[in-house]
Amino acid sequence: MTELTSALAAALPDGRVLTDPDVVDSYARDRTFVPPGRALGVVLAQSRDDVVATMRWASEHRVPVVPRGAGTGLAGGATAVDGCVVLSLARMTAIRELSPQDEIAVVEPGVITADLDRAAREHGLMYAPDPSSYEISTIGGNLATNAGGLRCVKYGVTRDSALGLEVVLADGRVLNTGRRTMKGVTGYDLTGLFVGSEGTLGVITAATVRLRRAPREMATVAAEFTSLRDAAAAVSAIVAAGCQPSMLELMDRTTLQAIDDWKNIGLEPSTRAMLIAQAEGSADEMAALCGAASFVAVSSTPEEAAELIGIRRLAYQAKERLGQCLVEDVCVPRSVLPEMITTIEEVAARHGVMIATVAHAGDGNVHPVFVFDRGLAEPPEEVWTAADEVFRAALDLGGTLTGEHGVGLLKKRWLGLETGPVAAELHQGIKRVFDPLNILNPGKAI
Ligand SMILES: Cc1cc2nc3c(=O)[nH]c(=O)nc-3n(C[C@H](O)[C@H](O)[C@H](O)COP(=O)(O)OP(=O)(O)OC[C@H]3O[C@@H](n4cnc5c(N)ncnc54)[C@H](O)[C@@H]3O)c2cc1C
Fold first, then answer.
1. Where does the FAD-binding PCMH-type domain lie (predicted)?
2. 347: Cβ contacts below 8 Å, ≥ 6 apart
3. 352 and 256 in a common domain
């Protein structure tokens, strides 16, 4: 240990600080290829007091701090920077309170998302935000990235379930934002500001989140189409008919092929796209609205439904088997989803790049995954050119660069295209108010 890390270790209970280089390396990356900087050490926080002590030490010595949940991020947000300490919140896993009466839970940041959902279901409730990574990501990471997920089309993103936060600021002060009521408008919406701030404004050490009644009967439909456009048209039809789906997911041929090669799902050669839709009540109307489908499967039991949705949840791992992945995340108004998907196909063909696309189609949130050679340290030029064209097309269609993964390090070079100089200046001003020494996740997100 150096003098600096020894001072940190002295400020914390035994065993909280790790400096073994191999161990530190294992905390330095998220799920991107972004090369990490060299960290001084890792703090395994187990309480708010540990976080307070870490931030006081970091302020005193002006050491950058990179907050970290499970490291499943896809934007380089939790990637270590040179000379930093990685502050892992993964051991703060208590569900401090779960109130069925008020339909809220108070949780620590290291709680795995699906664990909170399971705890809520014991009371007939659910925690709605469900990123595909919900079995491996943490609530703290979900809050910091404002994660979306499969059920967002009906229940909204993480911000829509966040009522209040406990946050440790850069100088170690503790801030409580928001409330535990369903309504409340006192002061500025600081909870909303912290959600999605990617660890640049403060470290979330607890959250009061909203739970919802778990629906009793869910109908699930999986429909195969011989064209992506027909699948996208079915999305519009299902929404327009007022089916209020709680899930509306689209996968293209490349994605389905990767899943089939891995799990043998019996993919037909003519299938170009699959739509998976779920709603409360009957499946008949949604199935009928998939009129152009070549095949429609309707689940009659919860087990069958889980199997159909399980196909979608395999998508990311299936693509990782093809090579390294640049997982992108544009979001467009739902009405122009067919144009966005067609553009992605054209870009892939023009640059000879493999792009496998899945979409939270009900939200217009499209994930084109650019697959490239495993041997390369980072994506080759043609992948960046193709990605650049996809981002610009999304913005031209009235969309955004990132629907749910965040900016991190990966998207920073395109940020100005969307925000413009006035917003950029205000972002920097807000950052200075919360973190005048620029020690919280410096260089990320803004
Ligand atoms: C297979 C797979 C599927 C995925 N599917 C989805 C999806 O459907 N929807 C979606 O939105 N994302 C998805 N993701 C991306 C990722 O899971 C989410 O971004 C998730 O919210 C990250 O959580 P984490 O705990 O891993 O956070 P990390 O990756 O550890 O950190 C993410 C960011 O949050 C910050 N942070 C973490 N904890 C805190 C804290 N307590 N206080 C302050 N800042 C903090 C970090 O500094 C970093 O900037 C997927 C990833 C994978 C690998």
1. 35-214
2. 353, 355, 386, 389, 390, 393
3. no
The answer, yes or no, to whether any atom of ligand 1 lies below 6 A from the CB of 70, is: yes
pTM: 0.96
Name the residue range of residue 392's domain.
323-435
With a 6 A CB cut-off, is 220 part of the ligand 1 pocket? no
- For residue 446, is it within any domain? no
| Residue 200 pLDDT grade (very low, low, confident, very high; cuts 50, 70, 90) | very high
Number of domains in the chain: 4
Q: What is the pLDDT of residue 339?
A: 92
- What are 72-121's pLDDT values in tens digits? 999 999 999 999 999 999 999 999 999 999 999 999 999 999 999 999 99
Q: Which of 132, 276, 331 to mutate to test the pocket of ligand 1 (most atoms within 8 A of CB)?
A: 132
Of 34, 60, 88, the residue that ends a domain is 88
Given this model, what pLDDT does residue 306 score? 87
Q: How far is CA 135 from CA 72, 115, 116, 215, in A?
A: 11, 8, 10, 20
Q: Would residue 445 count as lying in a domain?
A: no
CA-based nearest residue to 104, from 51, 46, 185, 182: 182
Atom of ligand 1 nearest to the CA of 403: 11
Please tell me whether residues 72 and 108 are part of one structural domain: no
| Cβ 77 under 6 angstroms from ligand 1 | yes
- Residue 28 · residue 22 · CB < 8 Å: no
Q: Identify whether 441 is part of a domain.
A: no
Last residue of a domain, one of 161, 189, 213: 213
Provide mean pLDDT across the span 362-389: 95
Specify whether 207 is located in the same domain as 229: no
Whole-number pLDDT of residue 217: 82
Ligand 1 atom closest to Cα of 67? 47
Distance 397 CA to ligand 1 centre (A): 27
Q: Is residue 235 part of a domain?
A: yes
DSSP 8-state code for residue 215: P
Using a 6 Å cutoff on CB, does residue 441 contact ligand 1? yes
At 135-168, the pLDDT tens digits run: 999 999 999 999 999 999 999 999 999 999 999 9
In contact, 64 and 83? CB cutoff 8 Å = yes
CATH number, domain containing residue 302: 3.30.70.2190
pLDDT for the residue numbered 284: 87
